[in-house]
């Protein structure tokens, strides 16, 4: 079995895993330096680093690496610790490096206007693969978004039928109008996407939240929603707004939530919004073109 082919297969399936490699060894060990073992997200393995108690501990550590998405190193002294005396080793020490294997960062951008275009350009440079969806063929096309994994130019309700975000996916909603944003958000919160962001003001977020919860959606579905989307850097132009959104996406991808003091508006303030009767009767101004 080619472990590298297995890694590529895992990533193509949108799954996670970890690779354990013997990076240093001294004395007699049950394998060889550079030996590798792949631990998949379902606990199955490919390859070996020697078996026995060492492999069992590495498997357990790899599960933590997968969950935390952060690498770690382990050192084993096979001479001193009697629990490794299983007849499989003769002694020695070895160091094992465990690194996470993550699926490609797939970003769904709903809307194909100015902000969406600039976000597409910036996100691709940062390693995100992008899928574009908009109901306007004049905007949603391969010429305008070269290199996109997929460009869907049709009514959003029809587009939803062929799009299936995974747990590792990101969704940014930047359509040209409030109603379309709400349609997309209604669908997005029912997906397992890791991140959902919606362009707009906090007032708009309150209005959309109220409307969708009145329809019967569970308020907890909005805990992954970030709106206003992006870090507050005073962005004004489409290019600047794209940078602010991308910075937030990277913070989520790298699990740097400490860089997001605002966190999710829905998660922190939705209870307040639900009881704010004054805001309930507010109406939004006509949304600006995006």
Q: Could you explain how this protein is built, in words?
A:
It is built from nine helices and eleven strands. It is 34% helix and 20% strand. The C terminus is likely disordered. The N and C termini lie far apart (49 Å). It is elongated. The strands form two sheets. Strands 8-7-6-9-10-11 form a six-stranded parallel beta sheet, with helices on both faces. The chain folds into two domains: 99 residues, no CATH class; 175 residues, NAD(P)-binding Rossmann-like Domain (Rossmann fold, 3-Layer(aba) Sandwich), CATH 3.40.50. It has 290 residues and is an alpha/beta fold. α3 packs across α7 and α6 crosses α8.
Topology readout:
Blueprint: H1 3-12, E1 17-26, E2 36-40, E3 45-47, H2 52-68, E4 72-77, E5 93-101, E6 106-110, H3 114-125, E7 129-134, E8 150-153, H4 156-160, E9 170-173, H5 178-188, E10 195-198, H6 202-214, E11 225-226, H7 238-253, H8 265-275, H9 277-280
Helix pairs in contact: 3-7, 6-8
């Amino acid at each position: 079995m080619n472990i590298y082919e297995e890694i590529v297969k895992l990533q193509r399936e949108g799954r996670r895993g970890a690779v354990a490699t013997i990076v240093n060894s001294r004395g007699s060990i049950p394998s060889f330096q550079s030996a590798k073992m792949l631990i998949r997200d379902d606990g199955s393995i490919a390859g070996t680093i020697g078996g026995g108690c060492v492999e069992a501990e590495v498997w357990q550590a790899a599960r933590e690496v997968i969950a935390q998405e952060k690498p770690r190193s382990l050192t084993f002294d096979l001479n001193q610790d009697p629990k490794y005396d299983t007849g499989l080793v003769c002694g020695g020490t070895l160091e094992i490096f465990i690194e996470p294997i993550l699926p490609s960062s797939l970003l769904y951008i709903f809307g194909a206007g100015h902000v969406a275009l600039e976000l597409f350009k910036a996100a691709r440079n940062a390693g995100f693969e992008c899928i574009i969806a908009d109901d306007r063929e004049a905007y949603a096309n391969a010429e305008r978004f070269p290199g996109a994994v997929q460009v869907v130019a049709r009514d959003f309700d029809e587009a939803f039928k062929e799009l299936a975000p995974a747990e590792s996916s990101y969704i940014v909603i930047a359509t040209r109008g409030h109603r379309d944003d709400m349609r997309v958000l209604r669908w997005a919160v029912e997906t397992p996407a890791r991140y959902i962001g919606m362009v707009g003001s906090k007032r708009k977020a309150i209005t959309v939240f109220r409307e969708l919860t009145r329809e019967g959606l569970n308020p907890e579905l909005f805990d992954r929603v970030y709106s206003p989307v992006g870090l507050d850097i005073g962005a004004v132009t489409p290019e600047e707004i794209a940078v602010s959104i991308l910075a937030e996406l990277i913070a989520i991808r790298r699990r740097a939530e400490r860089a997001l003091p605002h966190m999710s508006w829905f998660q922190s303030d939705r209870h307040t919004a639900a009881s704010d009767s004054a805001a309930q009767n507010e109406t939004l101004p006509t949304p600006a073109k995006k």
